[in-house]
Write a structure and sequence with these properties.
Blueprint (H helix, E strand, L loop, with lengths): L2 H6 L15 E8 L8 H16 L11 H8 L5 E6 L1 H7 L4 E6 L2 E6 L2 E2 L5 H4 L22 E4 L7 H18 L2 H9 L5 E4 L2 H7 L14 E5 L11 E6 L2
Parallel strand pairs: 1-2, 6-7
Antiparallel strand pairs: 1-4, 1-5, 3-4, 6-9, 8-9
Helix pairs in contact: 2-6
């Protein structure tokens, strides 16, 4: 079964107790240089694409060298841990198994999932807390890309938001027909990340607008488990294929 097939069967495993020693995460590393930090939106768009690209890399397919790690990760609770790197730290992370995506100069590397206890030293030494960037004004979303609408009512650091948009692209990909997914892959999984207006957000998550989680409308939602920053069950991102 592919990573997306495994993702589609997660409902049957929801609520199954998790062995603390077996907890696995996908490390995501954001390149944030001190003197020339990236803008927030391109960084989130790179994170969204990188999280999906590493899952759909040929090495993550059944029989591939990464597949056992992805199978074990998706079979549990899907967790991502976002860290920041610069300079030599970024160069070191680039030598670890994973996929790097760049958008408008912003770079994110999504790494192959691992047990928390087995986190590579190059990653474990990177900082998690305090990873943030100021809001920017990206303009209208391109008409030919899916949009990841971020909840305007819940403040999130850029690290937290990066993990959430990464969840969103995975869920959206699992909801797409094979031909549309292939077309998206040919476009390097480009997507637009935008913070929804409060009134539009209310429509996205209500019966008056696209219904959250209805795959036939190619609209899916990310509900956070509540481990960090937001309350459990909070809808953080709605991904919409337009």
């Amino acid at each position: 079964m592919t990573v997306l097939d495994l993702l589609g069967g997660r409902d049957a495993r929801r609520g199954v107790p998790e062995d603390p020693d077996a907890v696995r995460v996908m490390p995501m590393v954001l390149r944030i240089d001190r003197m020339a930090p990236p803008e927030r939106t391109p960084l989130l768009e790179a994170a969204a694409a990188a999280a999906l690209a590493v899952c759909l890399d040929p090495r993550a397919e059944p029989g591939g060298q990464w597949y056992p790690e992805f199978e074990a990760w998706v079979s549990g609770r899907i967790r991502k841990v976002t860290r920041r790197a610069r300079g030599a730290q970024w160069d070191a992370v680039g030598r670890l198994p994973g996929v790097t995506v760049e958008r408008a100069g912003a770079q994110v590397r999504a790494l192959v999932p691992c047990r928390v206890a087995d986190t590579p030293r190059e990653v474990a030494r990177l900082q998690i807390a305090g990873t943030d960037l100021p809001a920017d004004r990206p303009g209208p979303a391109p008409a030919d890309q899916p949009v990841l609408w971020v909840n305007p009512e819940v403040p999130m650091s850029v690290g937290k938001a990066a993990a959430q948009v990464g969840h969103a692209t995975m869920l959206l990909a699992a909801a797409l027909p094979t031909d549309q997914l292939a077309d998206w892959a040919a476009k390097d999984f480009r997507c637009a990340v935008r913070t929804a207006e409060p009134a539009d957000w209310a429509l996205l998550v209500s019966g008056d607008g696209p219904v959250v989680g209805r795959r036939e409308r190619r609209t899916v939602a990310v509900r956070d488990a509540g481990f960090t920053e937001v309350a459990p069950g909070t809808v953080t991102v709605v991904a919409q294929w337009r």
